């Protein structure tokens, strides 16, 4: 039997969309962009690794971190040259060789470092979640409007994946029918701690565990899935309910290690369930979108479509969706959305960052979408930590 995938037979191949890992947009004539990395922890170093995959587009020329140990770790990534090193981000921003900066600092520092970067006329790749709270999101939005020549991209990288573009199109074209539920998890079986060489550095190194610096599991993990639902459905939640606690690791942390968030999207007749625990890794990353005609089940790099039995009975096959006369099914009864796994989302995101600097166009994950998701994360945490139902306010509506 000939293997047929959802992508190949569905008519979803639209002009301008990426069809495979290797198919890219045209390269703008802006040469190599010199990058400064502000924040050299795990995420900052991870982005540096991806930047090295684009030698004809990016070059890291400067790094910054308040911890000398992080600078030493990051310096090991240098191939032939030595990065200029800074412990103060404002000094890095004074470097005229730096065209754009990547901000991968603790969440509470996203806003002040982003403000300084904009005022220094740098293009900006700002890691998620965009800001620590609602007011910062709205204020940063106003500031960016006063810097129209600078590209500001927010690091919700999964929405750049060809897989997630296809799922968005499936939703828009009604292939899943009426969607009423979204189930998301991002679990791990680990305490999320980093080694601390000196007790005085505990809060700087393990900042994710302390409310002063962090939005916890909702900001660090679940924000990606919340962001995708906002984007794919062109919506935002109106009602926020949550519960959780420090249920696994009694080690002095302040942010919860076990959370469940339920969001209501009344304009779409949709409920979103978003959960994470540090006490079990069986599900890991789980993302299911459930409609009357079928279900999409996503990992970060691959996905399956599972048609409802009613669709099969009505059509005999899912020709209303795929156009195929014969389909090879997985043993669970689904068919792949793409023929092969995609690259890491950061690869696609950085490629787009380069293209948008060349064209001056608004990135898909931009200051407006980033603000919307940052507000969602803050309201979800308000519901979580205050044990209350929280509602979206009209003042939070942001439009390009």
What are the key terms here?
alpha/beta, Rossmann fold, Dihydrodipicolinate Reductase, domain 2, 2 domains, 12 helices, 15 strands, globular, NAD(P)-bd_dom_sf, Gfo/Idh/MocA-like_OxRdtase_N, nucleotide binding
Protein architecture, described:
By secondary structure, this protein is an alpha/beta fold. It folds into two domains: about 20-160 and about 360-365, NAD(P)-binding Rossmann-like Domain (Rossmann fold); about 160-340 and about 370-395, 2-Layer Sandwich (Dihydrodipicolinate Reductase, domain 2), CATH 3.30.360.10. About 30% of the residues lie in helices and about 20% in strands. A nine-stranded mixed β-sheet has the order 14-13-12-11-7-10-9-8-15. A six-stranded parallel β-sheet has the order 3-2-1-4-5-6, sandwiched between helices. Helix 3 (about 70-75) links the parallel strand 2 (about 60-65) and strand 3 (about 85). The longest helix is centred in the last third of the chain and has 20 residues, at about 365-385. The N and C termini lie far apart (about 50 Å). Residues about 1-30 and about 320-325 have low confidence and may be disordered.
Rounded mean pLDDT score: 89
CATH fold type of the largest domain: Dihydrodipicolinate Reductase, domain 2
Instruction: Enumerate the strands of the largest sheet in spatial order, edge to edge or round the barrel.
Output: 14-13-12-11-7-10-9-8-15
Bin the helical content. Answer: 25-40%
Shape: globular
Strand content: 15-25%
* The CATH fourth-level homologous superfamily of the largest domain: Dihydrodipicolinate Reductase, domain 2
How many domains make up the 3D coordinates?
Answer: 2
Largest sheet: 9 strands, mixed
- Which parts are unreliable, with pLDDT below 50 for 5 consecutive residues or more? 1-29, 319-326
CATH architecture of the largest domain: 2-Layer Sandwich
CATH class of the largest domain: Alpha Beta
Order of helices and strands: HEHEHEHEHEHEHEHHEEEEEEHEHHE
The helix count comes to 12
């Amino acid at each position: 039997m000939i293997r047929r995938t959802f992508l190949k037979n569905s008519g979803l191949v639209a002009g301008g969309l990426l069809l495979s890992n290797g198919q890219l947009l045209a390269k703008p004539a802006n040469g190599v962009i010199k990058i400064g990395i502000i924040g050299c922890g795990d995420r900052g170093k991870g982005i540096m690794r991806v930047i090295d995959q684009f030698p004809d587009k990016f070059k890291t020329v400067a790094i910054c971190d308040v911890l000398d140990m992080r600078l030493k770790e990051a310096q090991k990534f240098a191939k032939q040259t030595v990065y200029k090193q800074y412990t103060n981000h404002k000094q890095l921003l004074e470097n005229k060789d730096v065209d754009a900066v990547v901000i991968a600092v603790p969440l509470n520092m996203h806003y002040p470092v982003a403000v300084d970067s904009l005022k220094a006329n740098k293009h900006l790749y700002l890691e998620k979640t965009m800001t620590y709270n609602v007011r910062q999101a709205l204020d940063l939005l106003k500031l960016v409007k006063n810097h129209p020549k600078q590209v500001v991209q927010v690091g919700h990288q999964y929405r750049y994946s060809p897989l997630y573009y296809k799922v968005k199109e499936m939703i828009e074209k009604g292939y899943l029918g009426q969607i009423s539920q979204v189930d998301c998890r991002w679990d791990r079986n680990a305490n999320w701690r980093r080694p601390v060489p000196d007790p005085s550095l505990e809060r700087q190194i393990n900042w994710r565990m302390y409310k002063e610096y962090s939005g916890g599991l909702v900001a660090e993990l679940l924000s990606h899935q919340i962001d995708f639902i906002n984007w794919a459905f062109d919506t935002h939640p109106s009602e926020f309910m949550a519960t959780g606690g420090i249920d696994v690791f009694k080690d002095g942390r302040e942010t919860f290690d076990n959370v469940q968030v339920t969001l209501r999207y009344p304009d779409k007749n949709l409920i979103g369930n978003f959960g994470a625990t540090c006490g079990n890794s069986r599900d890991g990353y789980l993302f299911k979108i459930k409609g009357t005609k079928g279900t999409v089940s996503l990992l970060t790099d691959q996905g399956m479509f599972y048609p409802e039995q009613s669709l099969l009975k009505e059509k005999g096959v899912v020709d209303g969706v795929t156009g195929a006369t014969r389909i090879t099914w997985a043993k669970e009864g689904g068919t792949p959305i793409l023929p092969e796994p995609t690259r890491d989302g950061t690869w696609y995101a950085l490629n787009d960052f380069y293209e948008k600097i060349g064209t001056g166009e608004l990135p898909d994950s931009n200051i407006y979408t980033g603000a919307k998701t940052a507000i969602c994360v803050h309201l979800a945490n308000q519901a979580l930590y205050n044990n209350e139902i929280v509602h979206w306010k009209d003042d939070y509506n942001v439009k390009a």
